[in-house]
Amino acid sequence: MKHIKQILLILLLFTVLAPAMGRDMSKKGKVDVKEILWGHIKDSYEWHITDLGSEGHFTPIVIHLPIIVHSTTGWHVFSSSNFSEERDVNGDRPGPYNLVIKNSEAKDNPNLIVEKVGGMEVRPIDISITKTVCTLFIDAILLLLVILIPARWCKKHKPQDEAPKGFTGLMHMFIMNVYDDVLKPTLGEDTPKYAPWLLTCFFFIFFANLMGLVPFPPGGGNLTGNITCTFFLGVCTFLIINFTGTKEYWKEIFWPDVPVWMKFPVPLMPFIELFGIFTKPLALIIRLFANMFAGHAIALSFCAIMFIMFAFADSAIVNYAAGSGMSIIAISLSVFMMLLEILVSYIQALVFTMLSAVFISQAHVKPHKA
Questions:
Q1: What residue intervals traverse the membrane (predicted)?
Q2: What is the pTM of this model?
């Protein structure tokens, strides 16, 4: 009860301060909802935290990330702060070695580094540590810590010893819950073989989802809302499914037990089964990406309502009244969405792991007995 009162007090304080925050935000000029949404969701070469200052003198608080590119003049490593915020007539940001970051509204290579060579724009080999990559490293380090600490406890204790407590006990509960209630019923005797990958998927996705809800570094990166990340996880599962599949699995794809006219001369069923090989990982990729992307977009849209209402009316009194009233509604909806996102973070990690286990088990078909 004590902690609930503290949480409610913080929410009440934030609700009181929100109108002032929204009014200051609206003074910057026209509220660009698109920029608010994409500024959080899209990848970038710097990590923008917030803006500080008063009207007309806002100072951005930014974490500059390392740029690593190979251009026509060789490899270059420097900070993204070398790209000036002052834009030239072409809308690009001047930088060293004839490298510029394209404007987000550019038709070609938006928000990407290009090299100016003889009036032409050339994309260099770019392996820079972007916001998404930095978030990936942070989540990977976090994953190693929360897994290796319980593993160290297990190494020092025997199965008949007293159950662990605290953080180690919490992680044991999570691990055994996924292992016993999701993987074992699905994979059976093959569970120990595929559990390392599936448990890694579950905890990596779960922690990445939770870290994306934290509004400040080291959180705030929308890793699972990036199609590249979910694509990599889906491709890895795809490779495991098809490279470990049994002969019976491939037989059912290319010569299933259906009437011959459905297999020859027109291979209708083999085509459908072969097409299904690619739709399974695609379902994993799109489901995770779409759910996390949409959740972040909706939560940010609710926050943007507050800023829009402050900039909506011409009259200062009407402006403040509309903004203050909408702030309470916007904050309430945002808190609801954040709580819902915590639940969704767990559900999406569990669904990805469960479906991966199901698809792997389907690839281990035993020969049918006559």
A1: 136-154, 194-216, 223-244, 264-286, 298-322, 328-360
A2: 0.82
Q: Tell which residue, 149, 179, 181, has the closest CA to residue 166.
A: 149
Task: Assign 3-class secondary structure to 127-169.
Answer: CCCCHHHHHHHHHHHHHHHHHHHHHHHHHHCCCCCCCCCHHHH
- The DSSP secondary structure of 73-132, one letter per residue, reads TEEEEEEGGGS-SS--TTSPBP-GGGEEEPPTT-SSSTTSEEEEETTEEE--EE----HH
Instruction: Judge residue 105's burial from the number of C-beta atoms within 10 Å of its C-beta, 0-12 exposed, 13-18 middle, 19 or more buried.
Output: exposed
75 vs 124: CA distance, rounded Å: 10
Residues 187 and 181: beta-carbon distance below 8 Å = no
Name the token pair of 24: 């200051």
Maximum CA extent, the chain: 83
Look up tokens 């940001």; give the residue. Answer: 93
Q: 35 by DSSP, 3-state: which?
A: helix
CA distance 174 to 323: 43
pLDDT tens, position by position, 338-357: 888 888 889 999 999 999 99
